[in-house]
Amino acid sequence: MRIRIIDAFTDRPFHGNPAGVLLLDGPFPPDAWLQQVAAEVNLSETAFAHPLPPGGDADWALRWFTPAAEVDMCGHATLATAHALAAGGLAKGLIRFTARCGVLTAEVAEDGTITMDFPTSSLTPVEPDPAIARALGAPITSVHDTSAHIGDLVVELADERTVRELAPDFAVLRGHSRRGVIVTAAAEDPARGYDFVSRGFFPALGIDEDPVTGSAHTALAPFWAARTGRTEMTGLQGGTRTGLVRVRLAGDRTLLTGHAVTVIDGELHTSPEAPSL
């Protein structure tokens, strides 16, 4: 079985966010096997996809697993899957995926950029939890909860430097969100090519820091649109690894655009015992 490691939201190897991608010939194998493969790959997400019969609402079924759990929505592994399909000649142009969060699309342009259409997250202001401030080691400007399919807390900090220099206490953060904590601040100098910065921490899912979280930008887009009055922006996410996500807010949908590059293309020397739907 062919397995790829693809760096998403970057056009250079060893940058952006790596994802495992397995394109299956038939229905999904048992969940336990999918989880074991994701744990073995040991990246923030491994995507599994299989083709669907023609004539339906989607072309491919798609699921995402962290090393510890299945998630409802993942941007960078969707981008990586679309890149794998296009690079392998299995799809071109608009690709429709069905997933736990509904139907998502990814459109591959002639220049290799991929634009994904995701549901925009809701944002609900909540009172800052003093434990989160202590875990982050920085004062908090505001906190917003996100929609059910995301389950992150968006935590606004004072400035870009504060975001970049964070060294969180992950053990404390583990118990303070449904999925993760996204910290963000306005860019210090937009002339550098991005309008806001962010970092994503997901210790509850076995991921201390996720380099570039596409799904989080469905919340960051409306968050920063409300502050800037702009619907098209670019976000820079990451600590030691970074990547760029171009966002366009279109009401209840958010368009996420980025590049991807295949870094490893190999063979998985194991197979599930009994595939199931």
Automatic annotation (TrEMBL):
Keywords: Isomerase. The keyword Isomerase applies. This is PhzF family phenazine biosynthesis protein. Belongs to the PhzF family. The keyword Nuclease does not apply. It comes from the Bacteria. Pfam families: PhzC-PhzF.
